[in-house]
Amino acid sequence: MPQTNQQIDQDQLVAQLRAKQSDAFSYLYDNYSAAIYGSITRIIKDEDVATEVLQDAFMKFWDKIDQYDSSKGRFFTWMVNISRNLAIDKLRSKEMKKVGKTDNIETYVTGIERDKLNHMQVDSIGLKETLTSLRDEERFILEMVYFKGYTQSEISDEFDIPLGTVKTRLRMGLKNMRKVLQVE
Asked: Which residues, 6 or more positions from 110, have their beta carbon under 8 angstroms from its beta carbon?
């Protein structure tokens, strides 16, 4: 049985988790929770919600351990992917959208996030309408980066577009926007 002060080989840890050994789960949490929490907080900024997603992630690791296939990648990568997907799902959930709508006015006014502020500024100058003059693939990349907060790497990974293509489309989209807006 593992102890938290000993290092356990990844294959041994996976085998113990598959055997549903609670000490293996404790070891997993003690040694990986900080890193997993870090990946979650890149997506979800609210600590309480991020902690909830962390708990959900570890329960999913426990429940779905039989689905892990070492031939497809490292165990840690598998856990990060599950965590990231849970965080994105939570962020896009009706529950999270509803929270933003039911905040009291003081919380809302003092807690405007930068992306919401940018969104308001973009709408007020008609930039979203200007985007319609771009090619579809350029518009898609610009919307994902500037309106939805994706990084270029995340777009590449999630939509299966080569990173170089994402960068080129972003650069060309910005160049074409400058032309449309007559900003040089």
From this structure: none
